[in-house]
Specification:
The chain has 15 helices and 15 strands. With about 375 residues, the protein is α+β, with helices and mostly antiparallel strands.
Length: about 375
Amino acid sequence: MNKRYGFTTELVKKYGVVANRISKGFEGVFRVLPLVTVVDNSVLICHGGLSDITDLQYINEIPRHKYASILRPPSKRNDEGEDEIDLIEWRQMLDLLWSDPKAALGCEPNTFRGGGTYFGPDISAAVLDKHKFKLLIRSHECKPDGYDVVHDGRVVTVFSASNYYEAGSNLGAYINLGPSHKPQFIQYSATENTSQLPLYSRVSKVESSALRDLRTKMFANQGRLQAAFENYDPEKTGLITMAEWTESMNSVLNLDLPWRTLRAKLVEQDEDGKIKYESCFKDGALEGNIANKQVTETIYRQRNILETIFRLLDTDNSGLLSREELRAGCELLAKHNGSISLSAEELDNLVDTMDINKDGEINFNEFLESFRMVDNKFASTNGAV
């Protein structure tokens, strides 16, 4: 997680050779930090949010130190020698760390993040009222102004990292709490040249970053989207209605987004208002044979995983893979999988093939491109068209 989201890289840039020791120190501290803080028996503070099963008494009794990571629940051996997992305990922690508020009533799985919940104003009111709290303060979401207030003023989001997406995309903020526990928001920007940008410019930068992420998800599911569009277009006209397009996007991507509003930025219309669904993939069209399209979609879909692997191989956090780093990675694979073994000559050939611009090192784009090159070779060997 630290490598994927850049924390390790930041430590190396700031602290050099002692970065690894500092990272271990952070991990030890995070392992004992409290999940929840209560201020004056009035304000509840957590990272993510709440759910319909949040039980603060239960949470208070969880042995905090046994959770080194929330990505997977810890297990223990029972008397029969089988691993047992306390899913209720794990879910309590997961909801506190990964949940987000929503405007509608109720509580549902947070499918966007893959963990936690979306909790409505009735859920926050129930938990806060049960414990006689006035307010929930949480973070976990970037906000253009650095903070946001929802659920009748009882749930506050505060986000301290300014310029989170790009320079000028958002302000950061922190909260001063006085004796009345009414939050006072202090906003700031880390760089002077972006702090004075008007709101529409900051929103535009956030929107651009979000649209890039959305397009990546669309390209990762191009085959499924194409099939959904063509299901409404049996005569292969290339045109479907707005309602059919929004239904296809919803059913395939499973994202609750205002597709009609986003339409102008994602797809073209003809003069009759029909959607030219092929234009969805105009900027990132996958060319070549079927096998190439499938592997490219897979690469889009698994980009985060491939980026994590790249960063794990990149031991000096330079953003480039050297011959030595790639050799160490191959040796590690060979150690855990006896069927993978490369001689020094084979490894040199592998590096030469991956090093497309021939500068002696492999950047992330070359790393991704190597997967497509392998698929092309495999397809031609097997006579694919």
